[in-house]
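User: Fold both of these, please.

Assistant: Here is the first one.
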Amino acid sequence: MKVLVIGLDCVPPELVFDKWHGELPNLACLMGMGVYGPLESTIPPITVPAWASMVTGKDPGRLGFYGFRNRKDYSYDGFSIVTSSSLEEKAIWDYLSEAGKDVVVIGVSPSYPPKRVQGCMISCFLTPSAESPYAYPPSLKEEIEELVGEYMFDVKDFRTDDKDNLLKQIYEMTEQRFKVVKHLLKTKPWDFFMFVEMGPDRIHHGFWKYFDPDHIKYEPGNPYENTALEYYKFLDRKVGELLGMLDGETAILVVSDHGAKRMDGGICINEWLMKEGYLNLKERPKRIARFEELEVDWESTVAWGAGGYYGRLFLNVRGREPSGVIDPENYERMRDELIEKLEALGDENGKAIGTRVYRPQELYREIRGIPPDLIILFGDLYWRSVGSVGWNTVWVRENDTGPDDADHALEGIFIMCDPRHSGGGKRVEGLHVMDVAPTVLNLMGLPIPRDMQGKVVTG
């Protein structure tokens, strides 16, 4: 059994399974012949580590990274960016390569720099530039450039007010990606083929407010009202082109790492910490400034936070951080106190927003690396975390890193069509991103490693 995994970053089930189901005939056909359902992401539901959890069957605690940037030590500025070397657990393609299977992997993060496999690998959107050594074997890079010119790992800037240029880039990127996929499908031997297209993620962040009437910034009749739907229809046609290239011995999975939802606003986590007396600065900035630019009075600071689609809160613990102030025996009491206050925090009018705060130890079987002391999903992810300071308010209705309409949601999509038996269009519940790796290995007749945390999904 050959397996093709089509990865569509950030696709929410409510768009594909419900709202636009009738507009997406190829995805609907796969659903009708197979099984499908919402795919629960990792907490946090972030591109990295969600794809990594998907292809390893391990949670972020086991992987040891909790986002793009992670603490590398207990200093106040010691952060590192995830690379392929951060992924120490075996991925699907590692098991398959060891079993003598041919694999092709394109854009599954984190995969820069590309690793040696039995087959081909093109690295992901974390690749610094097209000048970087992004392909394995190295000769593949020249082949790709002869086919499409400069390879696009991502759009140049998805947080922009220049929507026409953003849309042009997204279509160019997706067109190019599928051209490369089709080329490798035809010209390379493969038993397992997986690629990830970033276009849906960029469409959601750039255009969500234009099609969602519930978005705070939605304007009826705007010129981009159908932009996201038209892109999804384009994407569906591209998927259909791939399906026409396959034989009857190929199982097909369509998966996303997480979903998307409208962004209502941002919680200025460090402004809140200052307001509550947990964070002290030697001098308040006269303009909006990144946290890294601030001069923090660490000797009187209890906690600080970081921005992003989820909130990360770090405690200043004596004996752990350089100028720690929290006695280790009071560590859990302080976490309890902060959880209670954060979960009670409403919007600017005091209305409850449903924030959830987690201790990493509650989420993961084991902890590797250095996680945040608390992981915060502000407003059930309708609110993002704003890390910059200088707003003089806890609540903002914009993003501090550029225009952004959407946040990530906890559920992506899973569709599986196994040609050996029809799933009859059955919708299944309770699926998790960690189920994908053992499911692929099972389809290909390989044993499931005992330390994989996911389960096998069958038709």
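And the second sequence with its predicted structure:
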Amino acid sequence: MKNIIETQLTQSDRDHFDDLIGQVEALLAGKLSALTEEERVKYGSINEQNKLLVNKVRDYRQTSPAMSSPDVDWTEFESDFQARGFLESGAARLSSLAHQMQSTKILHDNDNYQDALNDYAYAQYKKGANEPGFTEKVAEIKQFFNRTGTGTPPTP
């Protein structure tokens, strides 16, 4: 059976990836927050309507600063605005990569599973031909299959 995916990542690519992820983790260590569920509920997330409000207030600040409240720390406001944009963009990029990595992993899992089924079928054939060692191999692998009497192994 033909594999549905062949990896394009060499061991060098994997090592480089691990190094880069380590660098990103080190760069961000102590600079990100991990809110508890209670804190997530407390602070929430501003919805699209409220994002539009923030954007409009920022637009007014940039075009008509004299109309801005003196009670707001506008340097901090802009810093928060820029950080929010960076974090949202970075999270989206990482999320996209994570989705692609999970999808690719699923394809590799499927290839491994299909190959394992092929190997089990081969072991059953060799057991039927009374080849030494295959009776034990089939017995050990058989435990992973459905015992409801359907006779077909589960699909991945």
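The radius of gyration is 28 Å.
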